[in-house]
Design goal:
single chain; 259 residues; alpha/beta; Rossmann fold; 10 helices
């Protein structure tokens, strides 16, 4: 079945002559876990903002699950998302330490609080995947394309295992790699460039597939041969403005051919 806004027919063709690899974002592209992330971010930020407003005698302004998520946290490492959103509200907290408990009022404390909420949701609701994405990945592999998953999430491996799709990828770069190798998070291109190196491909011969503005910006910053935006939430213009070469409503609109 076509997704809303999708034609249901291929409108873009990826040729093996032009490209050697395709690099996929996880949340919102491969899996439907984006809605779990949004719910976890909203619960964490609303709880924190409401408590802060009560303490300071200010008006509580809740986290907007559309605008705030898309502009400040989508596609970014957790602590970067916390910093970006709080800055939009004029709030500055101490960075703290990655080991901060979720109750601590620090950037890392809030980031860890959000992660705890997300993992609880993941455990109770499970992982859904987009069938059209898996169909495209299997087609790409059959044609000799190399395939990687690139995510800011430290839970990427667990999500792939829970969905039973870990074996579909030739390489994985995730939040654990960013921390260990001191890579900058999206919109910097570091994670995608690291994936291209692991695959042994030139970025100019690879396509980045993203649904987040920060991810599209990262693909363009890395000078990848193609950046494909996936618009499942009605933000086609924003993805195009961020630099996507092509924007589709669903990956069923993408075909792959040997030549």
């Amino acid at each position: 079945m076509a997704m809303p806004g999708s034609t249901g027919q291929p409108t873009l063709t990826l040729s093996r002559v032009a490209f050697d690899a395709v690099l996929f974002d996880l949340d919102g592209v491969i899996t439907r876990t984006a809605k779990l992330h949004i719910a976890a971010w909203k619960t964490m930020f609303d709880d924190y903002l409401e408590q802060r407003a009560r303490r300071l005698g200010e008006t509580f302004q809740p986290f907007d699950p559309d605008r705030d998520y898309r502009e400040f946290v989508d596609g970014k490492a957790r602590h970067d998302g916390v910093v970006g959103f709080l800055a939009s509200r004029g709030i500055v907290l101490p960075l703290g330490d990655p080991g901060d408990p979720p109750e601590r009022e620090s950037v890392w404390g809030l980031a860890n609080r959000k992660n705890r909420l997300y993992l609880d949701l993941l455990a109770t609701r499970g992982v859904e995947v987009f069938p059209s994405t898996l169909t495209l990945i299997r087609r790409l592999r059959a044609l000799g394309f190399k395939v990687a998953v690139v995510s800011a999430s430290k839970n990427c491996a667990e999500v792939l295992r829970a969905a039973g799709i870990a074996a579909l990828f030739d390489a994985r770069v995730d939040g654990l790699d960013l921390e260990r190798d001191r890579l900058r998070g999206k919109p910097a291109p570091d994670s995608f460039l690291a994936a291209a190196r692991r695959l042994g491909v030139d970025p100019a011969r690879a396509v980045v597939v993203e649904d987040a503005i920060a991810g599209v910006q990262a693909g363009r910053a890395g000078r990848f041969g193609g950046v494909l935006g996936v618009d499942r939430t009605g933000h086609r213009d924003a993805l195009a403005a961020a630099g996507a070469h092509w924007v589709v409503a669903d990956l069923e609109e993408v075909a792959a051919v040997p030549a």
